[in-house]
Here is the input.
Amino acid sequence: MNLLTRHHGLYGQRIADNLRLRSPENWQISELELPKVLPLIVDEPEEFLPLELPSANLVLHLAETSQAAQLLPGVIRLSGAFVVITPIDNEPWIPPGMRRQLGRELTALGAAIVFPEPFCALAEDLIAAQPDLQPEQQDVLMAFTRHFGRPRLRVIMSDDETISDVIVERGAAYSSGFRWVDSADRNRLPGQYQAPREEDWGHY
Here is the structure.
């Protein structure tokens, strides 16, 4: 996986940092810090981008303005990426009209774009519902979703119905909305903790 994250604020930086910490060792993760001030309408995206970008197959768009989203076609042309994940954690950053426009423009460039709303809703069913995905595009999305997206835990119970182990099978891309549990944490789980309800798992 060659992943390019693009951001210009704390929201995107926090996600990029978490991906670097928790992604598989064979993933190559590059970051593109975008200009914080852009014109209302961007006609030539490459004017606001570096002359060269790292090669990527997946772009993770984490910028916080609709102007920054207009740079995506340029990013695709310069990086060679063919899949874009654009989370909708704040609708004004990517309003509905902008989503339709990006869908048309990126399709013309041979790239697919998905809009999980919010980011932690990303899962296999969302990818399966995307129309016209090419096999290589679906493979990249599934590879990312195996590790990040809708939180999924496996809770192992002891005979007295208390938690004996918690295994994180998939965590949210931003760590604040989901409590990652590693082996050291499991050893410190109090015996009186009862198993969480399945509908509450995304809040742990």
The radius of gyration is 19 Å. Confidence is low (pLDDT under 50) at residues 176-204. Residues 152-203 form one domain. The chain has two domains: 2-145, 152-203.
